[in-house]
Amino acid sequence: MHQEGPLTVELALAELRRGMDVRLTSLEGQLALLLQRDEHHERQITDQVRLLSEVEDRLTRAEREQVTRGHLEARFRHTVALLSMLAAAASAAVTLWATVLN
After folding, report:
1. Mean pLDDT of the chain
2. By percentage, how much of the chain surpasses pLDDT 90?
3. Does residue 19 sit in the same domain as residue 52?
4. Which structural domain range is residue 95 located in?
């Protein structure tokens, strides 16, 4: 009976060790998977931040280059003024030419 006691304890300890090893291995695998997912999410976040920055830059450029109603009205006024000056110069030239011919 004395022989069976230590043997039973040794078997129980061996079983306990095996169970702990299995659980520890399982936990290590889960931790590795979580770390892999974390790295993947970090890469995705980095990519999304880069894309967002590119979109913000494009939007900023578009806002700088956009033509507003005020810009169009100013261009129209300048164009009308230029055409008026050209018409006046042409009229003066024709008048001068007509005067010279008479």
Report:
1. 91
2. 72
3. yes
4. 68-102
